Amino acid sequence: xxxxxxxxxxxxxxxxxxxNRPVTVRxxxxxxxxxxxxxxxxxxxxxxxxxxxxxxxxxxxxxxxRYEAVSxxxxxxxxxxxxxxxxxxxxxxxxxxxxxxMSQEQREALRDAVRIAHxxxxxxxxxxxxxxxxxATGSVRNAxxxxxxxxxxxxxxxxxNPAAPDESTGR
Length: 171
Known about the structure:
Blueprint: H1 7-19, H2 25-32, H3 40-52, E1 56-61, E2 64-69, H4 73-86, H5 91-101, H6 104-116, H7 130-150, H8 153-160
Antiparallel strand pairs: 1-2
């Protein structure tokens, strides 16, 4: 699983992803210098580190290299989301909490993505009606109730944890 990119790595990779072509250190440097003071060697080091981490491939061109992204920003984001979800001891609760944080626009984008992926058994919660909320949270309640039976202190912990799903709303 990839670690999240650092701020400077992200700034460099954003350009590599947006330009969608092999780039030189000089090109990235000149664009970054519009926002901040930065040295050529710093950008060169960041691109070399990204190459060593497997984020970019490089090809020699004269005395310099041209760097190109190995995967898309979407694939990077998906890997981070998958890792976060995989770390949860209750993935269903994590997803319900995530859905609860989404804006209507984000939920619509997720519904579109599910349609594109042709995964008919997945239903993205609308969070507009009580029935839909219950359908989205039913499995979480069952998992939470089971967990609380095993550990009565879990209920008290969730009451004081704003990130824990609310039993009444599933958020």
